[in-house]
Amino acid sequence: MLEYPIEPLHFVHLSELELDELLLIEQSVYSKPWTRGNFLDAIKSNNWCHLLMNGTTLTGYFVAMMGFQEVHLLNFTVAKPFQSKGYALHMLESLALMSKTVSAQWIWLEVRVSNERAFKIYETFGFKKVGERKNYYPLSSHQREDAIIMSYRL
Q1: Of 46, 70, 114, 145, which is least surrounded by CB within 10 A?
Q2: How confident is the model at residue 106 (pLDDT cuts 50, 70, 90)?
């Protein structure tokens, strides 16, 4: 349950106009954030790029790619002031509903092994750990981190 709603929550499609604000959030949350180019590529590829707005305040966003009967969650972020308030679960529920409308049967994602907080959110929602990808995420120019592969049956 959301603890922080001030105004009606709604989703808007990401456009280049919102990128500066989104990138500030991305850079404040991740040690290896997506770049402007990553987000522009996602928009141009017709991925689902949705911003969760609380009134006019950007609270979170996700980027997901559709495949045959599945959706792959590529980026999932809640702005720091809104974390631990239910926004992540709200976004996951919305993603699941959107995925069902295109007859997807699964949602897939990868999460850093060190990101216990995100892992717990996904697990709480109902995602299951199904495997690992070795050396998937960059940590530095010399180190990489494993990813946990998770899936959610719609």
Answers
A1: 46
A2: very high
Q: Which domains does the chain have, with CATH numbers?
A: 9-153 (3.40.630.30)
Grouping H, G, I as helix, E, B as strand and the rest as coil, residue 87 is helix
CA distance 92 to 98: 10
Q: What are the residue ranges of helices labelled H in 1-154?
A: 19-29, 36-44, 87-101, 116-125
Alpha-carbon span 114 to 138, nearest angstrom? 12
In this predicted structure, the answer to whether residue 87 has a pLDDT above a threshold of 90 is yes
Burial grade of 102 (CB within 10 A; 0-12, 13-18, 19 or more): exposed
Task: Measure the CA–CA gap between 46 and 83, rounded to whole angstroms.
Answer: 27
